[in-house]
Specification:
five-stranded parallel sheet; Rossmann fold; 4 helices; alpha/beta
Length: about 120
Amino acid sequence: MTLNPVVVLIVEDEPVIRMSVVEELQHAGVVVFEAGTADESLTILQANPEISSVFTDVDMPGTMSGTELARIVRNSRPSVTITLTSAYLKLRKGELPPEVGYIPKPYDIDHVLRQIHPPALV
């Protein structure tokens, strides 16, 4: 039995942070798409239905935050795993959209992998 690879979209406006997490996830065997804004990520999500997880910063440039992106993704693609991250914002469970995870920065890449992998793969 061959499992489909995990396909994640990283949404991070800081290029060095984005490049680092993309590289680490690719090294772990994850297929990665990347976006520098939440607005850009919606185009990537629409064009790539195989994306199974979104890992996004909360504070983003453009017309929407990572939290707003999470709400849009949750409503349009309920099966997608969503995880928010931030170095500055501390969110409580009640402040998150339904079934959205949160990892504060700085984060351990193993923690990110546990969030984006379906439970059967962990």
